[in-house]
Write a structure and sequence with these properties.
Elements lengths: L3 H16 L3 H17 L7 H12 L4 H12 L8 E9 L3 E9 L2 H14 L3 E2 L9 E10 L2 H11 L3 E5 L2 E6 L4 H10 L3 E11 L3 E2 L5 H12 L4 E6 L1 E2 L2 H6 L27
Parallel strand pairs: 8-10
Antiparallel strand pairs: 1-2, 1-3, 2-9, 4-6, 4-7, 5-6
Helix pairs in contact: 2-3, 2-4, 6-7
Length: 270
């Protein structure tokens, strides 16, 4: 998971900035509404909804907004019927991209995703072309001393725990995410981020010349309203991240259109 925690932190900061203009809030609310529609409004019986709500809380979405989204999804009030889909393709350098869509218009979403790939040097692939490289997992980025983190994470059901600088990358089954997080919080471990994501089985090394091109395509996809997440298998060294500054649009060679929404786990998910 090289490069993952650094990129996750960048995306976390930019997510807070993006929330100020409403884009992140809108995507989080859409995820809550869809989860409630598909699995019911009971958080204890719907882990997908519980994860979506927790993520919204972590990003300071108002409680009233969360409750209204759950009500719309559960059918208590009128709401939108969203469809989930995945698009697959490649960024420059052979980096695999697995794009998660949540939309009320499949034709619009397909057109926008295809355009983003075409305009930014990528190639949109056929279904199944890269999806097999990714596995759905729970992922937590946390800070704390080794013994406390290890004990709490394992008690909660974590599958893997790896150090990354002064933080810890914790991987678990998707359905175990809330239990692992609860154990960590009970042990007073600092949670930087947590989410159900798609982790790659292999990674592609990306050099300094190619990194801006990859990130520019990811940003273009993430900026689409119908795109919830972009998962990628790039491995960008810390030294290259340093040359990209804070991964702002100017730093990565993209047009300056304000703060970008760069979503959770890189391994890379945006």
């Amino acid at each position: 998971m090289a490069g993952h925690s650094k990129w996750a932190n960048i995306k976390h900061r930019k997510g807070r900035q993006d929330a100020k203009r409403g884009k992140l809030f809108a995507k989080l609310i859409k995820a809550i509404e869809s989860a409630a529609r598909n699995g019911g409004a009971d958080l204890s019986a719907n882990p997908t909804l519980a994860t979506a709500v927790q993520k919204a809380k972590d990003n300071s979405v108002p409680k009233d907004n969360i409750e209204r989204a759950i009500a719309r999804g559960a059918g208590d009030v009128d709401g939108v019927d969203y469809v989930e889909a995945f698009y697959e393709g490649y960024a420059p350098g052979g980096v695999a991209l697995y794009v998660e869509i949540l939309t009320d218009n499949r034709n619009r979403a397909a057109s926008d995703v295809r355009s983003a790939f075409t305009k930014n040097g990528g190639n949109l692939g056929e279904p199944g072309s890269v999806g097999y490289l990714f596995e759905q997992k729970g992922y937590i980025l946390a800070g704390g001393d080794e013994d406390t983190v290890m004990m709490a994470a394992l008690e909660g059901g974590a599958d893997d725990i790896k150090p990354d600088g002064d933080q810890w990358e914790i991987v678990c089954g998707p359905s175990d995410l809330q239990a692992v997080r609860a154990e960590l919080e009970g042990a007073e471990v600092t949670i930087e981020s947590s989410d159900v994501t798609y982790l790659p089985s292999t990674s592609v090394p990306v050099d300094e010349a190619t990194a801006p091109k990859v990130l520019r395509l990811v940003d273009a996809l993430e900026d689409l309203d119908d795109v919830q997440n972009v998962y990628a298998n790039f491995d960008i060294p810390d030294s290259v991240f340093e040359t990209l500054g804070d991964a702002s649009p100017k730093a990565i060679g993209a047009p300056d259109f304000g703060p970008l929404l760069l979503r959770s786990p890189n391994i890379c998910s945006y």
